[in-house]
Amino acid sequence: MEKLLLPVALIVIIAELILSGPALTGGDETLLPPVIPVEEPDRVDGWVLAPVLVAEGLESPTDVVGAPDDDRLFIVEKAGRVRIMKDGAVLPDPYIDLSDWVRSTGNEQGMLGIRFHPDYAENLRVMLFYTDLSGTSKLVEVKTSTLDPNRVEPGSVRQILSIPQYGQYHQSGSMFFGPDGKLWVSLGDGGGLGDPEGHGQNPGNLDATIIRIDVDRGFPYSIPDDNPFVEDSGVEARPEVWAYGLRNPWRITYDVETGLIYIPDVGQEGFEELNVVPLTEGGHNFGWSMTEGTNCYQSPDCDPTGQTMPVYTYAHNGNGCAIIGGSVYRGDLMPQVRGHYFFADFCLGWIRSVVVDRDEIHLFKDWTGSRDERLGTVTTIGSDRHGELYVANLEGEIWRLELAPEESQ
User: Domains plus CATH for the chain?
Assistant: First the structure.
């Protein structure tokens, strides 16, 4: 199988990421995670990743999620289609094709996310996030056909949210439903080097935020009464906002067993970061564009008081260029890593995992070293309904993560 070693899109994305901007100041450039010993032995010793190729021939997949009612995988393609893998094969007809509605020419535009409503078995509702032809970010709802579970009901598209964008970068667009049925959606700062519009520190708009909305009440949605900025908080913010100060949070996720939200945020030209906070605590300011990682960004004497610091950061410096968020492993194929949060880097394709207890890292595992040629240009790490993890790449492949004894490799 021929590999695309450096796609044109990748070259452009890397160029955008490394273009010069304000100098980074302060902090330790290595920013290694604090490794805190645990009482039980490290169960990952002696095991290595042995990914299994399960699908290929897709067009720039950006999201992978398991159907809630069976073992199908729903795979989002950047161009505006959702494909279904069933019984080990990708079905020829898409679940939905919105390619005539979607702008995917920009490197961070296109169809970016899909999530199933928690009551999908009864209401067949599915959320999609994409960039429309005008460059506007759209959150829409569709319904699965009652006659064909592999197709959308014709004419069922309903717009929930529309956010005009001035650039092609930092659209974000990942989602999850919390245990209370509310929908969390991540939104990037809209692009431009160094956040020229100042969206990061302005929760009065929806860019650079994570929002929390109720798609079961109101039209097109309502705002939960317990959102952090509904009441007078001293911060002028949209009531939808749950947290702000983000550049391009690529793949937020929620771990149902720990109640923690994992928020990886792609940096500018210096640092990548992973934020982890409880689902029950909103109102966080993650710092962008005052800070990047734990370092001052806009000026050498910034005051990060009141900001929520990341639990893990890494400097570019040959280590990578863009953090790719994943999921906490809750499956059965790899019991050695149950509870590990897996993430990757877009440029180098390595895979790492951490075990987090609130704001501390208890275990850190570098699974692949500086690069893993097998996994290609990683775009996302998704999971099926059993908690097994799947890596998608720009080359159009889907790999299931598995482990093997080190001596067998």
Answer: 8-408 (2.120.10.30)
